[in-house]
């Protein structure tokens, strides 16, 4: 896509089915009823001047620049607030209108500095509109309303200059209507009114502003302007691509000046984000050219030696030689690979193909299994597909929204904004979470019910809710008889209906008020369209798969599946978690979730690839590490994943890596895992590659190369180079050819191609002959598996128990400004919001230990210990502590255990028994680890230069 600014139609589109026809400047125009005159004119190619109006916001009618004349109407009404009517006759140009518009614009310009840099750069709508109305000179002396105020430069990404503000309210409305934070307001009245970020004493940085960029994008004058634009100038070209942060999958226009990225502007036609963004996708792209990024391949014989830079040929030849040597010595099963949820579908597909066709085994796994595999298992068992059921648009039809084990405002903020819009329209909210997450209570949203359960008791809470549904006659029997297995339902209903599963009986286990739980269950069952959204707080448990199936049971029992506004929807954490699962990254499955032991499927791949494939499942990551410690697993190729920081029980991960003879890390930076690596292959960012990501709603979206790879190769080319060094003879010339192979071998992707993606913008799988343009909502009219499958999910307490030595429970999560292990966001200005991981403790627990906010504390479990600062807050319940895992200095996963989900081995990050005590400094582990990291990251050419 070229550098084309999307047209702004001034006001939002009407969704009405009926139409009206009017005449504008002598031209007949037919539009949906409810369309404004301004938009009708814009759709006909007629531009009416405007300042306060933009099609991403509701009509406002304050600037008076968009005046028109309408036959039979008095005066000159504002076109942005006047609905088109049948037979209406409109004139957008006349001498009277021209005079009035120039007069209005002249008054605006008296309060706008003549030396405005945004105007000079061409980044000011007001200056463009002044030219549009023919205004060349201003007769009046400059105003003095805002010119004396200092620029607010507190935010690291944009400045607010009151001198350039015309108080059009677009920024305030964007914060309200798009983001839903209400951080901005208009203070004062009349000519003294001005934009304010909260209290008069507050700056943007200290206010409730979440730096989503909606206000910056809405501003028509440069009063809110990005630093990068001020420093680099206006962009000259642009490419539409997909964000590489969370699983929402926002579409952006990456705007360039030469090979320099200037800004990321959310794309209004993006189906996942509809022109919105968060602080990460909008601003936190500076890691792409960070000085710590590694651009040359490196090798070393031992992790005690400094790195030595080599050519690509030498690195790949050496890697292949080592892999061959190790297999010759230790056997075919002694090596494996790990795919990444940060890489494209095409890159992930090639890594699993490399393992299966090149290594000759199924020892391939992915970080997606470490966090999301219970979703695949649970939803495939109950519904027949391993993915969520709805598109994001569906939430706009929901009447009851249940959020369980997810924190949308921090983890999936753009979708959270859409959810908040629906809640402000009247939908009811149920939150099931041990922590009082932000969405439970805001100035404009209150959850109808918050069930603060004890960590690890998800299944018990859901069983208790199902008990209420069944025993109070709230199940949708007609839906169940038509769509589900009736005998299985009766068995399940008898199970959940047992008095031992009542909210009252289970209250000592869950710590949830029985009456509150009963009310929540009744609301979900009877409140209209009920939609469930869940996250890692569901899957990262020893009963993760059971919880997913319990959620599916509840949705089927109430008929909340198979149409808009309902469904079971996992909120994926990383940009391509769904895609990495789809592409066959699990040791037991090919792409499309087909088992490696299935003869027909295996023959399909063998015929296409021209090799014999192993019918036996391979090793998962923890099994690889166990086998390494046992001395039988010796080499690992890791693409775009930092298992030392992200996987549980850091000491065990370190021991497994240290026991290997060849660890190949393929990444952007010398991450924590690279401390134990012998070969480092520099990776490319999402800005430097072509391919696709698949987001949480199964939406396959194009990733387009914005700039040349700084390391010289896209990631798929690196994997292909390694494959060919092993003698596989691959000859892909573009990722589109890899997608053609994926479509050829994967039924749910059968109709997907780069050409179709260019045509449609995005596609939600399954895409095949039955659904040539994709499937936004799944299981309409029937489940993929046939009849919906009810599964009895008995509550089994985790083996991780509290006791006198470890009396508290630790659960973990994310924060808005940081992403996953922080490798990207920690190398941006986002650290201003979250420079370190903090331990949240309830005031009672903190007081018992003599701790207050800001104190250093030792966090210890049966697995290990670390230190971090304390934040005392009642967001967590007594007996529960909480922290994030974004900073390697904390190494939060040194305390998490190796307990995992019974069906998928997904680690139980969310339940760890701990003790907290005052501390004077870092633990021995942290000191030793810091020394290891410093020693392991030496690069020989740097030492020589010094």
UniProtKB/TrEMBL annotation:
Entry keywords, A to Z: 2Fe-2S, 4Fe-4S, Iron, Iron-sulfur, Metal-binding, Oxidoreductase, Repeat
Catalytic class of the enzyme: oxidoreductase
Any one Gene Ontology molecular-function term assigned to this protein's record: formate dehydrogenase (NAD+) activity
Domain 2Fe-2S ferredoxin-type: 18-96
Domain 4Fe-4S Mo/W bis-MGD-type: 236-292
EC number(s) from the headed UniProt entry: 1.17.1.9
Residue span, 4Fe-4S ferredoxin-type domain: 156-187, 200-229
InterPro entries registered for this protein in UniProt: 2Fe-2S_ferredoxin-like_sf, 2Fe-2S_ferredoxin-type, 4Fe4S_Fe-S-bd, 4Fe4S_Fe_S_CS, Asp_de-COase-like_dom_sf, Formate_Dh-H_N, Formate_DH_asu, MoPterin_dinucl-bd_dom
Gene3D superfamilies reported for this sequence: 2.40.40.20, 3.10.20.740, 3.30.70.20, 3.40.50.740, ADC-like domains, Dimethylsulfoxide Reductase, domain 2
Residues in 4Fe-4S His(Cys)3-ligated-type domain copies: 96-134
Domain of life: Bacteria
Pfam entry (one): NADH-G_4Fe-4S_3
Family: Belongs to the complex I 75 kDa subunit family. In the C-terminal section; belongs to the prokaryotic molybdopterin-containing oxidoreductase family.
PANTHER family noted in UniProt: FORMATE DEHYDROGENASE H, RESPIRATORY NITRATE REDUCTASE
Protein name as it appears in the record: Formate dehydrogenase subunit alpha
Organism: Sphingomonas tabacisoli
Gene field: fdhF
């Amino acid at each position: 896509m070229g550098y084309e600014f999307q047209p702004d139609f001034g006001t939002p589109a009407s969704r009405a089915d009926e139409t009206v026809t009017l005449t504008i400047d002598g031209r007949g125009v037919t539009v949906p009823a409810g369309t404004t005159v301004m938009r009708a004119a814009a759709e006909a190619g007629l531009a009416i001047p405007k300042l306060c109006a933009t099609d991403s916001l509701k009509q406002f009618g304050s600037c008076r620049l968009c005046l028109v004349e309408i036959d039979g109407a008095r005066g000159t009404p504002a076109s942005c607030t006047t609905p088109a009517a049948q037979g209406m006759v409109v004139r957008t140009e006349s001498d009277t209108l021209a005079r009035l518009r120039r007069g209005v614009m002249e008054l605006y310009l008296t309060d706008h500095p003549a030396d405005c840099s945004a105007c000079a750069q061409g980044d000011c709508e007001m200056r463009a509109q002044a030219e549009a109305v023919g205004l060349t000179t201003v007769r009046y002396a400059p105003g003095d309303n805002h010119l004396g105020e200092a620029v607010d430069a507190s935010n690291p990404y944009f400045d607010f200059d009151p001198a350039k503000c015309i108080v059009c309210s677009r920024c305030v409305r964007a914060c309200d209507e798009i983001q839903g934070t209400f951080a901005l307001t208009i203070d004062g009245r009349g000519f003294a009114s001005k934009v304010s970020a909260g209290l008069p004493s507050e700056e943007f940085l200290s206010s409730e502003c979440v730096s989503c960029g909606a206000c910056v994008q809405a501003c028509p004058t440069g009063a809110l302007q990005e630093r990068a634009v001020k420093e680099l100038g206006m962009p000259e070209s642009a490419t539409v691509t997909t964000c590489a942060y969370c699983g929402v999958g926002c579409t952006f226009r990456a705007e360039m000046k030469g090979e320099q990225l200037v800004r990321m502007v959310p794309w209004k036609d993006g189906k996942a984000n509809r022109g919105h963004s968060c602080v990460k996708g909008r601003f936190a792209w500076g890691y792409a050219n960070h000085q710590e990024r590694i651009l040359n391949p490196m090798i070393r014989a031992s992790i005690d030696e400094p790195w030595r830079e080599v050519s690509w040929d030498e690195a790949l030849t050496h890697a292949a030689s080592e892999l061959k040597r190790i297999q010759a010595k230790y056997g075919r099963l002694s090596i494996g690979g790990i795919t990444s949820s940060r890489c494209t579908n095409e890159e992930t597909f090639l890594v699993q193909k490399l393992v299966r066709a090149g290594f000759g085994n199924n020892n391939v796994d992915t970080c997606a299994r470490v966090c999301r595999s219970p979703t695949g298992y649970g939803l495939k068992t109950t519904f027949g597909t391993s993915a969520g059921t709805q598109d994001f648009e569906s939430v706009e039809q929901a009447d009851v929204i249940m959020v369980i084990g997810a924190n949308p405002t921090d983890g999936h903020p753009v979708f959270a904004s859409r959810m908040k819009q629906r809640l402000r329209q009247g939908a009811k909210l149920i939150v099931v979470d041990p922590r009082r997450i932000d969405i439970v209570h805001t100035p404009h949203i209150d959850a109808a019910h918050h069930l603060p359960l004890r960590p690890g008791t998800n299944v018990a809470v859901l069983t208790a809710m199902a008990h209420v549904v069944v025993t109070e006659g709230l199940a949708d029997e007609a839906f169940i008889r038509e769509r589900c297995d009736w005998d299985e339902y009766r068995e399940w209903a008898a199970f959940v209906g047992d008095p031992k599963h009542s909210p009252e009986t289970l209250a000592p286990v869950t710590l949830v008020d029985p009456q509150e739980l009963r009310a929540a269950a009744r609301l979900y069952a009877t409140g209209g369209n009920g939609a469930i959204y869940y996250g890692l707080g569901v899957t990262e448990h020893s009963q993760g798969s059971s919880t997913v199936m319990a959620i599916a049971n509840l949705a089927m029992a109430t008929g909340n599946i198979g149409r808009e506004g309902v469904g079971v929807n996992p909120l994926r954490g990383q940009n391509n978690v769904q895609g990495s699962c789809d592409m066959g990254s699990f040791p037991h499955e090919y792409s499309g979730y087909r088992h490696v032991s299935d003869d027909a499927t295996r023959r399909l791949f063998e015929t296409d690839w021209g090799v014999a494939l192993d019918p036996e499942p391979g090793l998962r990551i923890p099994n690889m590490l166990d086998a390494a410690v046992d001395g039988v697993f010796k080499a690992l190729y890791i693409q775009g994943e930092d298992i030392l920081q992200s996987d549980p029980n850091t000491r065990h991960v370190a021991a497994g890596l240290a026991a290997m003879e060849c660890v190949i890390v393929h990444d952007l930076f010398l991450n924590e895992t690279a401390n134990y690596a012998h070969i480092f292959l520099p990776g490319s960012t999402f800005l430097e590659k072509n391919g696709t990501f698949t987001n949480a709603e199964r939406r396959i979206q194009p990733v387009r190369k914005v700039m040349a790879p700084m390391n010289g190769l896209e990631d798929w080319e690196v994997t292909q180079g390694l494959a060919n060094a092993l003698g596989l003879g691959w000859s892909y010339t573009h990722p589109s050819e890899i997608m053609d192979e994926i479509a050829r071998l994967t039924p749910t992707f059968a109709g997907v191609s780069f050409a179709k993606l260019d045509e449609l913008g995005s596609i939600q799988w399954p895409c095949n002959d039955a659904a040539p343009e994709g499937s936004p909502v799944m299981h309409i009219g029937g489940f993929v598996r046939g009849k919906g499958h009810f599964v009895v999910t008995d509550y089994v307490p985790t083996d991780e128990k509290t006791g006198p030595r470890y009396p508290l429970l630790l659960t973990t999560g994310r924060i808005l400004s940081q992403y996953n292990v922080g490798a990207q966001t920690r190398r941006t200005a986002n650290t201003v919001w979250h420079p370190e991981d903090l331990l949240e403790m309830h005031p009672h627990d903190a007081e018992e230990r003599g701790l207050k906010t800001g104190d250093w504390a030792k966090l210890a479990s049966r697995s290990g210990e670390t230190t971090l600062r304390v934040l005392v807050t009642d967001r967590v319940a007594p007996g529960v502590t909480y922290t994030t895992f974004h900073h390697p200095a904390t190494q939060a996963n040194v305390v998490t255990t190796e307990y995992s989900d019974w069906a998928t081995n997904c680690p139980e990050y969310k339940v760890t028994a701990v003790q907290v005590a005052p501390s004077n400094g870092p633990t021995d582990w942290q000191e030793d680890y810091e020394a290891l990291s410093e020693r392991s990251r030496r690069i020989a050419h740097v030492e020589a230069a010094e």
